[in-house]
Amino acid sequence: MSQRWTTAVLDTSQPGGWAVARCAQGFAFDANGVLFPREWLKKQNLDVLAEHGIGHFDGEPVYLLELHGAADWEGVQWQGLRQFMMQGDFDTYKMLAYAAQIGTWAREHRFCGSCGQAMTQIHWERAMYCQACDLRSYPRISPSMIVLITRGDEILLARSPRFVTGVYSTLAGFAEPGESAEDCVRREVMEEVQVTVRNIRYMGSQCWPFPHSMMLGFHAEYDSGDIVPQADEIEDAQWFNVHDLPPLPASRSIARYLIDHYVAERLGLPAPVLPG
């Protein structure tokens, strides 16, 4: 089956196509969705910071207009990336997730990090170029580990003060320089709940709605230690039986996939599919 969304480097000097508009408030959408006729959108007096050709949706070229701020025009609203992830068409979310990464990169690389000179956009590859330094800057990805820890019929779940009230989830954290994915899992688990794990197994990945973030999902078995929640990071953490679970993350998240996959395994149910 062909993909509805595919990434590509498109030349912004070419006319036509569709466009999405993004600012700090999220993406613009109206009754017809997030895709607007590109030439029409560029006539709406938007304060455009950068434009990038990002790919094809249903075979049609798509461009990103990264804005300085939200525009106010009739019939159009703004919504954050996470809301698009949790509801609606997942192919549209994947397009917007990519657009958000490119928009953040474009915003952060207008000037050279070495000499401070203005950078120019290269049209044949996804790069910004500093002529003075002969430096190219490419979009970066920040890997983050997310792990479900299990002990027989029990799973270790925790909640951050930032979570929706009552919701518990898996542990997660960003990788440090020079650290393997498995080392990151061990370190984050120790930092957040003071337990050790073994038999770490990779389960899948998901582009997450934070700048540059790629979540790498793992399953690990409990090895030793008593739960001690990390101060200021973990509000509560405890073992839950697979037959008696608390409110869980939304179904499209990789955290929920890790939980549902293990529960299905223990209860003899069909394994879920990770959205992507």
From TrEMBL:
Binding site for Zn(2+): C112, C115, C130, C133
Short name of any one Pfam family annotated for the protein: NUDIX
InterPro entries noted in UniProt: NAD-cap_RNA_hydrolase_NudC (IPR050241), NADH_PPase-like_N (IPR015375), NudC-like_C (IPR049734), NUDIX_hydrolase-like_dom_sf (IPR015797), NUDIX_hydrolase_dom (IPR000086), RNA_Hydrolase_NudC (IPR022925), Znr_NADH_PPase (IPR015376)
Enzyme class of the recorded protein, top EC level: hydrolase
GO-annotated biological processes: NAD+ catabolic process; NADP+ catabolic process
Keywords: Hydrolase, Magnesium, Manganese, Metal-binding, NAD, Zinc
Binding site for a divalent metal cation 3: E188, E192, E233
Residue ranges occupied by any Nudix hydrolase domain in the UniProt entry: 139-262
Protein name (Swiss-Prot/TrEMBL): NAD-capped RNA hydrolase NudC
